[in-house]
Design goal:
With 441 residues, this protein is an alpha/beta fold. It folds into two domains: 8-37 and 297-427, Lyase, Ornithine Decarboxylase, Chain A, domain 1 (Beta Barrel); 108-291, TIM Barrel, CATH 3.20.20.10. It is built from twelve helices and 24 strands. It has helices spanning 22-29, 38-54, 71-79, 89-98, 114-122, 133-146, 185-193, 216-236, 262-280, 293-296, 330-334, 423-427; strands at residues 8-9, 15-17, 20-21, 33-37, 59-64, 83-86, 105-107, 127-130, 150-157, 161-164, 166-168, 179-180, 199-205, 209-212, 242-244, 286-289, 300-312, 316-321, 340-342, 352-357, 366-373, 381-385, 405-410, 413-418. The strands form four sheets. Strands 4, 17, 18, 19, 20, 21, 22, 23 and 24 form a nine-stranded mixed beta sheet that branches. It has an eight-stranded parallel β-barrel with strand order 5-6-7-8-9-13-15-16, surrounded by six helices. A three-stranded antiparallel beta sheet has the order 1-2-3. Strand 5, helix 3 and strand 6 (83-86) form a beta-alpha-beta unit. Helix 2 runs parallel beside helix 9, helix 3 (71-79) packs across helix 4 (89-98) and helix 8 (216-236) packs parallel to helix 9 (262-280). The longest helix has 21 residues, at 216-236. It is globular. It starts with 7 loop residues before the first strand and ends in a 14-residue tail after the last helix.
């Protein structure tokens, strides 16, 4: 059984995280429950930041907060000197409410509304990542009306698409994000913003995929972006000050996944950028990256209570838990794979095979198919590992199920950072039906 971060098994056979017994956490906060290992998040963040510092390269490491967004995680990101990647007005509003430094916030998205962009200007965020020509015109109008400058990056699709162990160099042109680097769109976007009085173009941004375990794709993309920057310098005397190479760094979910340590990704990126700086005789840009899943993914653990069981003879043994696709849609949406343990029997042999079903009224609501577990009984606690990214952030109230509580643990202490929703929360925005009924003759 693979343990993550500060996870351990106590003398009484219970899974502990951050020095805290998960059985005790379930008693205090109930289940389902998301538990975040803060020490591991800090370690991941410092792995990226310290590598840039050690190599003497100016950088910003921006937490891609779509992975998990709340006031507390933004405050932790600020403590660790991270920047912040937001993709909606809601994420931006939450970040501002948390006290996160606005100048370190970068705003992404392919269809930012006027209201969202005005909020970005009003809160004086650090950068907007421009995604399309429509947005360029909106930014021109808003900045001119407010007579307010805004730093921007142009998001481009470099024709490199990476996923897990594979990457390809064609096919990414068909994306809802960014300006195509190869068909002239990026050049046209550059001309529209390069000399604008209020829009300050810093450089380029790309994002080539998710759950990436190799560095080749990042290196190839960086080379393509640096070539375009060289072209713009030669043709327009443009000096690129920022190169944002996005995120997508992989984590371990199961034995099939073999991620690299943060510093390896950083070292290879820097090596490629330096080679291109020398080849094209450019100034060294500041490098920005956007880890999300790799900062919080394996730091999160979901705790459930086991309820009913069902045996399909010679086919499958089901156990059902008190959550499911309402708090983790990834298995149903992506066929995502996870590993788990019976948290109150973690020291026992995993001699049983179960399919872990959720309680949602959907036959596809299965969290793990054929999980190797200890003998599971009603009332046991099931811990599913690596649910820190895209679990709570994609949670819903389907079937009118309240969203779980979220707890941070560190050095033997625990703190509630998101309260469990109540039934009253579910109806707080509902309004009674009051339309006059029309009689039918």
């Amino acid at each position: 059984m693979h343990l993550y971060g500060t996870q351990d098994i106590s003398k009484n056979g219970h899974l502990t995280i951050g020095g805290v017994d998960t059985v005790d956490l379930a008693k205090v906060y109930g289940t389902p429950l998301f538990v975040y290992d803060i020490d591991l998040i800090r370690k991941r963040a410092r792995g990226f930041i310290d590598t840039f510092r050690k190599l003497g390269v100016n950088a910003e490491v921006a937490y891609a907060s779509k992975a998990f967004s709340c006031i507390a995680i933004y405050q932790l990101a600020a403590e660790e000197h991270l920047s912040l990647d937001v993709v909606s007005g809601g994420e931006l509003y939450t970040a501002i409410k948390s006290g996160f430094p606005a100048e370190r916030i970068h705003f992404h998205g392919n269809n930012k509304s006027v209201a969202e962009l005005e909020l970005a200007f009003d809160t004086k965020i650090g950068c907007i990542v421009v995604d399309n020509f429509y947005e360029i015109e909106l930014l021109k109008q808003i900045s001119e009306t407010k007579q307010q400058p805004m730093r921007i990056l142009l998001r481009v699709t470099p024709g490199v698409e990476a996923h897990t162990h594979d990457f390809i160099t064609t096919g990414q042109a068909d994306s809802k994000f960014g300006f195509d680097l190869n068909n002239g769109q990026a050049d046209e976007a550059f001309k529209k913003v390069a000399n604008h009085p209020y829009l300050q173009l810093l450089g380029l941004h790309c994002h080539i995929g998710s759950q990436i375990f190799e560095t080749d794709g990042f290196s190839l993309a960086a080379g393509k972006l640096m070539k375009k920057i060289s072209d713009w310098k030669e043709e327009h005397q443009f000096e690129c000050t920022v190169l944002n190479l996005g995120g997508g760094f992989g984590i371990r979910y199961t034995n099939e996944d073999q991620p690299l340590e943060p510093q390896i990704y950083v070292e290879e990126m820097i090596k490629t950028v330096l080679e291109n700086v020398q080849a094209y005789k450019l100034s060294m840009p500041e490098i920005w990256i956007e880890p999300g899943r790799s900062l919080v993914g394996d730091a999160g653990t979901s705790i459930y209570t086991v309820g009913s069981q069902k045996e399909v003879p010679n086919v499958r043994q089901y156990i059902a838990v008190d959550g499911g696709m309402s708090d983790n849609i990834r298995p149903a949406l992506y066929d995502a794979k996870y590993e788990a343990v019976i948290a109150n029997k973690a020291n026992e042999q995993r001699d049983f095979t179960y399919t872990v079903a959720g309680k949602l009224c959907e036959s596809g609501d299965k969290l793990i198919v054929d999980a190797a577990l200890q003998n599971a009984e009603s009332g046991d606690l099931l811990a599913i590992f690596c649910t820190g990214a895209y679990g709570y952030s994609m949670a819903s109230n389907y079937n009118r199920i309240p969203r779980p509580a979220v707890v941070f643990v560190e050095s033997g202490e625990h703190q509630l950072v998101i309260q469990r929703e109540s039934y009253e929360d579910l109806v707080q925005n509902d309004l009674p039906f009051t339309l006059n009924k029309v009689s039918v003759k």
